[in-house]
Amino acid sequence: MSKTKVLVVEDYLPLVETLEYQLKRAGYEVFRATDGREALKQAKLQLPDLIVLDVDLPILSGVEVCKQLRANPATQSCLIMMLSALGEESDQVVGFAMGADDYVLKPVESYKVLLQKIKALLRRREPTVDDAESVTQSGVTVDRRRFVATIDGEVLKLTKSEFRLLETLIRQPGRAFDRNELVEAALGEDTLVLERTIDVHIRALRKKMNDSADLIETVRGIGYRFREHESSAHEDEEVAVAEEA
User: Fold this and answer.
1) pLDDT, tens digit, for every residue of 49-62?
2) Is the pTM here over 0.90, yes or no?
């Protein structure tokens, strides 16, 4: 069986060497890049399962690299864990909005914890056998086997988290999920995230759904649900349809 590939993108050599040592020790195949341009090149060449991506990089920032990785069909499904010394909530929101699957603050205080977070991310890639492989509601189709989501036949370019979130909602239309349920179902029960991370993913998902964005309804005081075919946001006073397109 081939090893899981991890691309470490970091320009601080001592951290690169430590990360490479810890990851190889854990059984991963590790590649390096020290600037944004090289990161994009290595990602296309190696097609890693996971990219550990520093935010503050030479030539191209980590945020721009993340954006370009998500825009490229060849690399859009790679898991991305961003590393940054910028710990403000707004910095993390930007990272998630650009398509990051997780956001870890530097300095790394525990490599054991970091490796557990990496394992948790990689578990999202594992296939599941329960439920139908494909489900369609209101013109939206989610195909788990092919990892493809479409609206009226047009493919959506979704991150792993956005895909899992849409799949969770669409399989039970009409059911209101609270944010904790969505973190567990769509992102993984051992994911460490901000309280409003789900809101960031929902906004990004709705934006990509364009005219179908209102199929994902905000249930006031609870969370979100995928609208049932026969329901309407105007008929339910407890529902606030997305304001963002």
Assistant:
1) 899 999 889 999 88
2) no
With contact defined as beta carbons under 8 Å apart, do 51 and 73 qualify?
no
Are 99 and 166 members of one domain? no
Domain region containing 55: 5-123
Contact 19, 52 (CB under 8 A): yes
C-alpha closest to that of 89 among 199, 183, 188:
199
Query: At 194, which CATH number?
Result: 1.10.10.10
Q: Let me know if residue 205 belongs to a domain.
A: yes
Q: Say how many residues make up the chain.
A: 245
| DSSP string for residues in the chain | -PPPEEEEE-S-HHHHHHHHHHHHHTT-EEEEESSHHHHHHHHHHH--SEEEEESS-SSS-HHHHHHHHHHSTTTTTSEEEEEES---HHHHHHHHHTT-SEEEESS-S-HHHHHHHHHHHHHTTS---SS-SEEEETTEEEETTTTEEEETTEEP---HHHHHHHHHHHTSTTPPEEHHHHIIIII-TT----TTHHHHHHHHHHHHHGGGGGGEEEETTTEEEEPPTT--GGG-TTEEE-S--
